[in-house]
Write a structure and sequence with these properties.
single chain, about 190 residues, mainly alpha, Tetracycline Repressor, domain 2, 9 helices, TetR_C, DNA binding, Transcriptional regulator, TetR family protein, transcription regulation
Length: about 190
């Protein structure tokens, strides 16, 4: 009779996510995952599935955690423009201080173009970010906190597209001041 494997699945997913975050999907081996999770490969296959299924769970965990954190953090800010500033500053912090940057952006460039399941999770994350910013920008326009344009959709796309460029710039130059200066310039353009 096979023995039941008991482990903390949430902790195991978190540990596996850290491995994928550091090494990328293609650079991660099953052995890396089982060592980090503290389980053997048969336990992994029996409880979660293969590497791809585990990765989907990890990227969902990552994006859902970010969504929850952003919602909580920005809900406490009464000014829409201040909330936009906080969101941009938080993004800059992630880009310049997190050792492995943003898992969603890394995943987008590594495998999302060829993997429909991953693409679906990344699209959900992008849709959340878009809607969050769009609603804040619309409110800021209504309150005259943003006066450069009344096109909330264009401003939302404009801001979101900066994030990918900042990630690329930081990977190449490793200069946090450069990213902060670009973010400050973007915020000046809005107000």
């Amino acid at each position: 009779m096979a023995r039941n494997v008991e482990f903390d699945e949430a902790l195991a997913i978190s540990r596996a996510m850290d491995v994928f975050w550091k090494k990328g999907y293609n650079g991660t081996k099953m052995r890396d995952l089982t060592e980090a999770m503290g389980i053997n490969s048969s336990s992994l296959y029996n409880s979660i599935g293969d590497k791809h299924e585990l990765f989907i769970r990890c990227i969902k965990h990552y994006t859902e955690s970010r969504m929850e954190a952003a919602t909580k953090q920005l809900a406490r800010i009464s000014s829409p423009m201040k909330a936009i500033e906080k969101f941009i500053q938080s993004s800059v912090y992630t880009i310049t201080n997190e050792p492995n940057s943003c898992l969603a952006i890394k995943t987008t460039f590594e495998i999302a173009a060829h993997d429909e399941q991953v693409q679906k999770v990344i699209k959900m994350d992008h849709k959340f970010t878009y809607n969050l910013l769009y609603n804040l920008i619309s409110k800021a326009i209504d309150r005259k906190e943003i006066t450069v344009s009344e096109d909330a959709a264009m401003i939302t796309d404009y801001i979101i597209n900066h994030f990918s460029g900042w990630h690329e710039s930081f990977i190449i130059h490793k200069d946090p001041r450069r990213i902060k200066k670009m973010a400050d310039f973007l915020l000046k353009q809005l107000s």
